[in-house]
Amino acid sequence: MIHELRLFLIALQFMTRVPVPRRVGFDAEWLSRSARHFAGVGALVGAWGAAVLWTASLWWPMPVAVGLSMAATLWLTGAFHEDGFADTCDGLGGAVTRERALEIMKDSRIGAYGAIGLVAMLGLKAATLATMPLAAAVPALVLGHTVSRAAATALMALLPYAGDPAHAKAKPLAQQVGVAEVVGAALWVGLVCVALLALDAMAAVVLGMALAGAAVAAVECARWLRGRLGGYTGDTLGATQQITELVLLLGVLAALRLGPA
How many angstroms separate the most distant Cα atoms in the chain? Predict the structure, then answer.
């Protein structure tokens, strides 16, 4: 149990700005093992965004509250996944070879594809959340951040690392994760789903449609990356998180519009 807490704190430190005590320590192998808790960190990020959204909605209209909520999560994570999404758009947006795509993604500068993709991604997420009732947007944020990070963990288990492990930004993430990490991510998703249903925060049909959409998005990302790069990179993990989160939010909105929750 103590070691699992250590792994969770390692994941928290890796994926957010939240400081952790120095006594937690660090070992390179712990980072890849901490992938089982990426979804748990996502739940905390989503809860933070949901809290800001609810509080801001008391003072301002929904679009403003959504903007402040997204800004809060971007600050908390240091735009970690958004940066990966932009780099992936730059690398895979054009008709270039696999080797050239990997080279482009290593460049810290953002290009036209990355800028356009990032604006479209953030704009779509903002529009989707702003169109939802507050009672749906709050749990959708928690669910979206949780499930999308579980999708990134699953991608690490399904695909090999596509780049050069020696030059990876986070070398331990260049190692494929095992069954324990996937099971851990699934447990976090299950815990959040049970909590949302128990609190009557989300109807089962809405939850089911959201999860189905996220699963399809994750599978398609894996298929696309296998065909395009032969595997994943750190940037494409961020891209998968962003795409899966957006599709899940779209699934929630679609379910709400198709019928009463």
Answer: 52
